[in-house]
Amino acid sequence: MRIGLLGDLTVVSPSDEPVKFTTRKTALVFAALVLSGRRGVRRALLADAFWPGRGEAQARNSLRQALVDIRRAFPADNRAAIEIETDLETISLAAGSGEADIWVFDRLIERGGIGNLAAAAELYRGDLLAEISIPEELEQWFRPHVSSYRQKALQLVDRLSRDLKGGGDTAGELACERLAERLLASEPAAEEAHRAMIRIYQLRGQANAAMRQYLLCREALQRELGVEPEAATRALIEKPTGLQTQEKAPSVAAAKTHAAVPPEREQPSVVVMPFDNLSSEEDDYFVDGVVEEITAALSRVRDFFVIARQSAFTYKGRFIDVREVGAELGVSYVVEGTVRRGGDRLRISVQLVDAESRKQLWSDRYEGASADLFEFQDRIAAQVAGAIHPAVRHAEIESATRKPPANLRAYDLVMRAFPKLWGQNAAAIAEAMKTLQEALQLDPKYGRAHALLAWCHALNITYLWSPDQAAELRTMFAAIDRASGLVEDDPTALTACGAAAGLGGDQQRASAFIESALALDPNNAWAWTRYGWIGIYQDQATEAQERFERAMRLSPLDPFVFNMRMGLGAAYALAGRFSEAAAIARDVVARHTNVTWAYRQLAAWAAMNDDMKTAHWAAERFLAIQPDYTIAKYVALPSLRDVSRFRETMAAGMKKAGLPEN
C-alpha cells in the first residue's frame, strides 16, 4: 500500500491499482487520518470540523458514513495493509510505517545524511494536498499541516544544499535542484530555495547562472515582500568567486543586431550563448563545436527563430545578464550551458531561460565518454533540440494565456488551443476547435490552424466522441486538404496532418506528411511519436517500438509523453508482449487520470495476459466514463483498416475483459 499526500492525494493498493474514494469529503477525511497517524484524532473534533453547523448527531452520522466509504475503498485482501481503528472517542489509522509519504519524509529528515535528505527531497512532489481542492470550511483544519510541511521542505532544501560537496554527488545535487524548483514554482520568494540553487550553480562552476539566480531572488523578494535578500543569501554571492569583480564590457552586438530585429515576431526567438568551458583551454574547440551543433539543430525547428552563431559569440568570455541579451538581440529565450571534462568522462549541462523574467524553463545534464566526443556532441544537440521545443511551446502557451482578448492574434489563439489538444476528453477538444476557428477567422490561410483542426476531428473519430463518424471523417480530410498547400515548411503542422491522416486510415499519405516533417526537423518528438503509431497501423511492431523509444529519448519531459508510452505499449502488444503492455497502461492510468482511453487498452492487454482482475477493473472504469462504448464501434475505426491482426487481438481482449460487443 502506498499513500501520497505531498502534491496530490494518491492511494495505490499492494496489487498496484489506484484506490479511489466516492467523494472528495471522504478523501479528505482519509487524509486527516493519515496526518493524525497512530495517535488518532477525537471523533467529535473530526465530525465538527468536516460537517459544521449540522448538529452533533447528524455530523457524527456523516462521519460514520465516510468511514464506511473508506473501508469500502479497500478490497478485503488489502485490509491487512491498512485499517481504520475506532472507539467511542478516537479514530486512528493503522498502517505500516512506510505506507505514507509524509511518514517516510519525516523519518528520512530525522536520520540525516545526504542520501536520506536527497530521498526526502524527491518525496516532496508539492505542497501537502496541493492538487486537491479543499473546501473553505476545512482550510483551518489543513492549513497548519500544509504550512508545517512546506517549512520542513524549505529547511530541507537549505540543509541539503549546504551538505553537497560536488565532485560526482549527482543524485543529491539533482534531488536538491528539483526540490528547489518545485518550491520556487509555488512561492517565487522562497529565499531558502534560491540559496540552494545558487549553491548548486556555484558547485557546477556556473558563475553566470548563480548571479542570475541571486538577481531573481532579489526581484522576487522586492516584488512580493518589499525586502532585500537576507545576509546569508548576499554572503553567497559576495564570496570570492569572481562574480562581483567582473566588469561588464559594452555589447558589440547591441548596435548591430537590435535594430535588425523586429519588435514583435509571429514566432518565439532563441539564442544559444557560448557555453562555459570548465576544463582546460585545449577543450575550447569542442565547447564551441557543441554550441554550433545545438544552434544548427535548433535552427531546423521552424517553430522558432534562432539567432545566428556569429551574434551570440560576441558575448563569449564575459558575464552578461540574460535580460540584456534579450533586449539587445530581440530574443525571448536564451540557452546557456557548461562543459566539463575530467579523465575519460565528459559532462554537459544545458538550460533554457526566459530572457525577460530570467526564469529557468528547462535544464538537463548529459554525461558520456570523452573518447566518443563527436558522437556525443551530435547526440546532445539532438536531445537538446528535442527537449527545448516543448519547453518553448509551453512558455508561449503561458504567454498567450496571460494576454487580454483585445491583444490576441491568430498565433496567440493557436497557442491557447494547444493545451486543449492534449486534454484527452471531448470537452477539451471542442474548446480547442472553437479557438482554432477564431484564429482562422483572423487569418483564413493559417495552415497550422487548419492542420490542428484536422487533428481535433481525428481525435473525435478515434475516441468515438462524435455521433456521426462519417461526417467527421469528411470534415477532417477537408481540413487536411486546406492545410496541405500552406504548411510545407512547418513540421508541427505537417505532423498534425500526418497524425490526422493516419487516424483517418490513409497510412500512405500519413507517412508522406510525417517524413516531410522529420526531414525539416529530425528531432521533433511529436513527429516520431506519430510515426510510431503509423508503424502500429501498418503492423510493424519493431519499427513502431524504435520510433516511440526515440521520441521519449528526445523529449522525456514532454507533456504528451503518455501517448509515447501508450504507443510503446501498443508495439509490445502487437509483438505479443501483453504483460509489458499492460504494465505501461496501468502506470499511465495511475499518473494521468484524464487519459480515459488508456483504460480501454489496459482492459484488453490485461485480459490477453490472463490478469482478469485488472482487466475487469479497467473495463468497469472505462464504461463508467464512456457508457455507450462497444467493441463493434472500435473495430470499425478507419485507422485499424490495414492492421487486422492487432484489431482482432484487441477485440478479443476487450470481449474477454467484459466490454460489450454491440
Automatic annotation (TrEMBL):
All copies of the Bacterial transcriptional activator domain together span 100-241
Extract the InterPro entries matched here. Answer: AfsR-DnrI-RedD_regulator (IPR051677), BTAD (IPR005158), Sig_transdc_resp-reg_C-effctor (IPR016032), TPR-like_helical_dom_sf (IPR011990), TPR_rpt (IPR019734), WH-like_DNA-bd_sf (IPR036388)
Q: Is Cell cycle one of the keywords?
A: no
Which PROSITE patterns does the UniProt record give?
TPR
- TPR repeats (start-end): 525-558
Q: Which domain of life is it from?
A: Bacteria
Could you list this entry's UniProt keywords, alphabetically sorted.
TPR repeat
Alphabetized SMART domains for the sequence: BTAD
Name the PANTHER family on file. TRANSCRIPTIONAL REGULATOR REDD-RELATED
Under which name does UniProt file this protein?
BTAD domain-containing putative transcriptional regulator
Organism (species): Sinorhizobium psoraleae
